[in-house]
Amino acid sequence: MRTKKLPILLTGLLTVGVFLAGCSTSTDKEVNGNTNSGKEVQAASSLEKAKQQGYITVGFANEKPYAYATPDGKLTGEAVEVARVVLNNLGIKEMNGVLTEFGSLIPGLKAKRFDIITAGMYITPERAKEVIFANPEYSIGEALAVKKGNPLNLHSYKDISSNPKAKVGVMGGGIEITYLKKTGVSKNQIVIVPDQPSAIAALQAGRVDAITMTGPSLQSVMNSAKDASIKRVMDFSQPVIDGKNIRGYGAAAFRKEDKELRDAFNSELEKLKKSDKLLEILKPFGFTEQELPGDKTAEELSEL
Predict the structure, then answer these.
(1) How far apart are CA 73 and CA 7, in angstroms?
(2) Which residues of the chain are in CATH 3.40.190.10 domains?
(3) Could you please report the per-residue DSSP string of 53-119?
(4) What does DSSP assign to residue 165?
(5) Is a pLDDT exceeding 90 seen at residue 159?
(6) Which of 133, 136, 153, 132 has its CA nearest to residue 144?
(7) In the chain, N or C terminus with fewer CB closer than 10 Å?
């Protein structure tokens, strides 16, 4: 994934204005058509501003099935579609998407290049020091893909750490980097790639012996690649970190000062959970009832 930020239209047609430091801004028509002055909009909270403007800017990393751009320029994915419904229910009918490398999402959010991260980002205590999360919208484990026949017999992160010659491809900024290191995988065994296509390309070219990402994400990219020489390790053993079996919980992320927006998002998300609408949104992206988040909250996951 390149660092260039691209505007993606989510609903309807939107005339995109200028970009400043990778940030999608409102058009003159939209601002001038508002009954409030520009000064008044600027002084409003992020939630109020979005409602006044009728749209909000979101940051995403091009990672299936969480958030990605289709060939015709539409932004979709699990996190995007959940946010689309939640924001629409809040009266925010449109979103501008800013394409960003995964590792740059939190810095971009804090720099106000966008107002929400909709990338299926895991809630972790480390990230919670920088941003505030909505409650989780899904929960999943990790997965591994190798060349057909699994030449190095890799079935876990421990197997990688036990073989100094084994190299594994991981997306920059991904939680998998932490998991691998805590499982004993050395730094020189980890090959950082910018995005999913680069991970597949590295495995195909033999630059790495395995690639790792979350289960639905790996399945999605493999389905797209349609390469019979690459196989998912179906008997993969989930990593145990600090004595705990790892299961990740993903959610939208917000700036710390945008608690009002986060709380409003949570309120609508809870309605989706209770009505079973959440599972309906998730299913097209490879998620099942096993990937539902249950009663876990961002607060408790941030304190683990």
Answers:
(1) 9
(2) 7-138+249-302, 142-245
(3) HTEEEEEE-SBTTTBEE-TTSBEESHHHHHHHHHHHHTT--EEEEEE--GGGHHHHHHTTS-SEEEE
(4) T
(5) yes
(6) 153
(7) C
Q: Is 157 exposed, middle or buried (0-12, 13-18, 19+ CB in 10 A)?
A: buried
Q: Name the residue among 114, 156, 161 with its Cα closest to residue 261.
A: 114
Q: How far apart are CA 281 and CA 272, in angstroms?
A: 9
Token output for 105: 């999402």
Q: Which residues contact 32 (CB under 8 A, 6 or more apart)?
A: none
Pair 210, 166: CB distance under 8 Å = yes
Q: Which of 28, 121, 13 is nearest to 73 (CA)?
A: 13
Q: Report the largest interatomic distance among the alpha carbons of the chain, rounded to a whole angstrom.
A: 65
Residue 23 has pLDDT above 50, yes or no: no
| Helix axis angle, 215-225 to 196-204, nearest 10° | 60
Q: Answer for the pair 161, 184: CB distance below 8 angstroms, yes or no.
A: yes
- Whether residue 87 is predicted with pLDDT greater than 80 in this model: the reply is yes
Band (304; pLDDT cuts 50, 70, 90): low
| Check whether domain 142-245 has CATH 3.30.70.1150, yes or no | no
- Between CA 269 and CA 277 the distance in angstroms is 10
For 241-256, the pLDDT digits (tens) are 999 878 889 999 999 9
- Our separate counts of H helices and E strands in the chain read 13, 18
Domain 7-138+249-302 class in CATH: alpha beta
Mean pLDDT value across residues 156-166:
98
